[in-house]
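Open question from group meeting: does this chain pack into something compact, or does most of it stay loose? Before anyone orders reagents, we agreed to write out a predicted structure and look at it together. Recording both the input and the output here so the notebook holds the full record.
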Amino acid sequence: MAMKTTGRALSLRGLSKTFIEKKTGRELEVLDSINLEIEPGSLTCLVGPSGCGKTTLLRLIGGLEMPTAGEVLFEGVPVTGPGPERGVVFQEYALFPWRTVLKNVSFGLDIVGMPGGEARRKAEGYLQTVGLTGHEDLYPRELSGGMKQRVAIARTLAVEPRILLMDEPFASLDAQTRNGMQEFLVEVWQRTGTTVVFVTHSVDEAVFLGGDIIGLSKRPARVVDTFTNSMKYPRGRTEPEFIALRALILEYLTREMSDT
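Structure tokens returned:
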């Protein structure tokens, strides 16, 4: 099981974000007073209507954007910018095409000045974690989409973040590969105990992965529902419990996307 510790990994307090549209100069309110607590060692999914601000929320947690109001606290400390304790995996693989698989995974370790031999051993360990031992000398162009995303995850895990922020990382994969990557993520999460916050448009993906599934409203996004998923892993996608929770989340999404 995933490692549990005391305290809160993540606290969002009155978090709001407004952008200024470049063409018109008008204000665009994206997030509205979001309050949320994420427990250490949990796997939490964020769902909501398309364009509601899920990615913006993740970027605020990662310190890639600053809030207009409110604050993000990670382990009780205000987030004021990016940090190695918060690893981010995007939908795009963002691998360096001129670096081998091993060199891509060791990139962050090289940046912080870890000696070459130690960085290699550590990168090889994380390649084993993601099931890519034997592929160290391949280049990204020689990998499938699922393998590229495994390399991206291994590269993020190699710097040992305490929370993993994932922005629809499997959205571009075919259905079979996507299901396999979801199973793989659960295995890695259980093995490492890393706190995971996962943004997805897929209700099935959220039900398969999430312990808590946070439902956001239309823009400006607020937290309107929290669905607790008590199903044990591995989860059967055709089990009555799975189907019932999926129906509840779809009902909330339909309600949020309606004009009434």
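Observations to bring back to the group:
The longest strand covers residues 27-38.
Residues 1-6 have pLDDT under 50 and may be disordered.
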